[in-house]
Amino acid sequence: MESSPSQLRSAGTARLLLLWCLAIAVAFAFDGTITRSILSASLKFKGSSLAERLKTPGDFGFVLLVALFVWILHPTRLRGAIFLCLGSILAGGMYALLKWPVGRIRPIVFINPWHFEPFRGGLRGFIHLENAAFPSGHACLAFAWAAGMAYLLPRGRWAFYAVAAAVGVERVMELAHYPSDVVAGAGLGLLASRLVLKWVGPGWITSEAIIGEKSPPAGRQSPPTMDAPADHR
């Protein structure tokens, strides 16, 4: 008995989630070794102009600029921009809710990847939590908008993911996060974008582009075509 398309998609999603968890576990095992090995270089790198530029794509302000670009120039217009913003908002909510209960301390404070202080500071800590490392918020936002742009502009997907990956590397080099924080944040960002796409549906995002197409002049009909519909997966 053949599996239905929905069953195949569910199985594929389950495999990706499993790989993500395994990647986090592997990164956890090497967090201390990697962080200590780059310590001297990180102290010089932290706060530099290069560090500030590299982490900018992980800020929500950058997401708004990308969304504005989509609104003005991309065929999906406002709906494409909304799609990007929703993915980033969901990603931001995800990492914010995880930081407090996990309570992992940033390596810039002290290097001990196995030190956790769950729910540090009580309810006040939830609002004013400082030096919380897991997961990386910058990596989460960067991969959320990168995944959204990869859907809207598939040809540029590797460039978008390269920019997001550079954000993750910067966060490790600046001792703001351990590698596993970045891996967790990246996965959350990808998941957030995927969930928003499933919620709104590809048809809702692209409908504005379809509506905006010019219809043929009255009395003239477009010739029949055998071209397949555009693949927005």
N→C terminal distance: 26 Å
Order of helices and strands: HHHHHHHHHH
Note the beta-strand portion: under 5%
Helix share of residues?
55-70%
Helical stretch tally: 10
Helices and strands in order, then pairings?
Blueprint: H1 5-37, H2 39-45, H3 49-55, H4 60-73, H5 77-102, H6 122-127, H7 137-152, H8 157-173, H9 179-200, H10 202-211
What does it look like?
- The chain is an all-alpha fold and about 230 residues long.
- It has helices at about 5-35, 40-45, 50-55, 60-75, 75-100, 120-125, 135-150, 155-175, 180-200, 200-210.
What are the key terms here?
68% helix; 0% strand; disordered C terminus
Question: What's a quick, concise take on this entry?
Answer:
By secondary structure, the protein is mainly alpha-helical. The protein has helices spanning 5-37, 39-45, 49-55, 60-73, 77-102, 122-127, 137-152, 157-173, 179-200, 202-211.
